[in-house]
Write a structure and sequence with these properties.
Elements lengths: L1 H13 L13 H4 L7 E5 L6 H8 L5 E5 L10 H5 L3 E3 L1
Parallel strand pairs: 1-2, 2-3
Length: 89
């Protein structure tokens, strides 16, 4: 099992872009990365829960974008929007 995890980690570390579900960002492999998510794009953001959106943001995210355009930021996300760290398009 350790060999598989190390192989996955090496692929993710070399990748320029990683596509994953929000819930998958809680996997151990992402916690082992340095600056795992510099930029996060949340697709179908209007259907995502606040807790699910926070998972990738807690892994070193510097910028976040939500797509498709939602009616407004989640209550917990208002401060990042005010500081220009998150935006919807």
């Amino acid at each position: 099992m350790q060999v598989r995890e190390n192989l996955e980690l090496s692929f993710v570390q070399e990748a320029e872009m990683v596509f994953t579900t929000l819930s998958s960002t809680g996997r151990k492999i992402f916690n082992r990365l340095e600056n795992a998510f510099e930029n996060v794009l949340v697709d179908e953001a209007a259907q995502a829960s606040e807790i699910a959106v926070l998972q990738p943001l807690m892994l070193g995210c510097k910028r976040c974008a939500f797509h498709p355009c939602m009616s407004g930021p989640f209550p917990v996300m208002i401060q990042p929007f005010q500081h220009g760290l998150c935006f919807a398009f």
